[in-house]
Amino acid sequence: MTSILLAAPATEPLSLAEAKGFLRVETDDDDALIAALIVAARLHVEAQTQLALITQRWRLVFDCWPRHGRIDVRPAPLKTVSAARVFDAAGNAHPIDTQAFVPDVGASMLAFMPWSVPLPTRIAAGIEIDVTVGFGDAAADVPEPLRQAIRMLAAHWYDNRGLIAADAGSAVMPTGVAALVAPYRMLSL
């Protein structure tokens, strides 16, 4: 499965003012840098957890349907399915009724009856499913430990702008960030 970002979050889980307050920065000189660090920290936390913190739209691409009729949606958490299609050998898209999928938002999974969906005849990337994922549209919807991890990571990167040697140990990543993120990691079994 390949996941392709269609629509990035409209906002960040941490505002520039919140980050500047946490960093104790009173001037506007580094606003662009701090804003970039917020985005980078969010992306890092999302990569570590396989979660979308703020509402986003993604396209899931498959070569064929899973035999067991279950699709784990990553990034999670799943909110809705907006479109689905299969492709024929000529590359033409054929829509699938989204009602063929039963979203299990708690498990961030789509269930379907494998015999009820049409088979793609394109040899690769024959199936596309568009989903909306994320905790919500506002920063307040994001679990506070993940927001704190973003604060700490952005502060760490703000204070340590140079290259750090790989053998520097804990200087590479604050230990507290890993501890805050760990309970939210989506593990594959």
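Above is the first protein from milestone M3; the second protein from the same milestone is given next.
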Amino acid sequence: MQKKIEYEQQGLPFMRYIAKTFMNGFYGKTALRTQRMNVVPELDPETNQMSYANKIVNEVEPIYIPYGAFVTAWARDKLINSALAIWDDFIYCDTDSIHCFERDSYPIDIDQKKLGYWKDETAKKSYDYARYIKQKTYCHANLEMVDGKPFKRVVELKAAGLNNDARQNSETGEFKISIDDFKYGLKLDKVNLKTNTVPGGAILRETDWALEKINYDDVMKKLLEEEDD
């Protein structure tokens, strides 16, 4: 953690990434699943399509599951109680960052670098419009007059899984998606590149991106089915 902070201060993003990966990897290894499922890739010579239907299940020794369980339990307690402590001002939070209406007197731990503290990503100025959809997917806009007509100019847009070039014009800085269109049902054609296996190697193909609503009932059903298996 200390190395991560030092690399941030020195402006070394790649070294910071390595330090952060070591931190994440330590937790991940302690909570490693004892039942590992590996897929066996097979190429169909007739269709040239790669199949991952064949699976092999192996049992491995655990590292130290109580540590992993403690980390996730502590994090849930920290997240839920922090949100409740500022509930009237709470807007959104991610793993370690938080957005609120009022940021002058937080009754919670705030620091941009310390481990276990919230990173304050509250807007440094107020916005006329904001729309928070889901994790890492939100938009801010201000009302302006353009050619005598009101215009909602997007000033910040996060969209998980969407290519940067599809969000914003790299030359002008203008965002390509309006805040009115930024909602469930939004679909953009051929904006992301996806790797596809072909004879002799792989190629990048253009794929669509959609802002689809999450059906949490289906998610819970799938999780329960995995536990039963």
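Note on the second protein: Residues 65-85 form the longest helix (21 residues).
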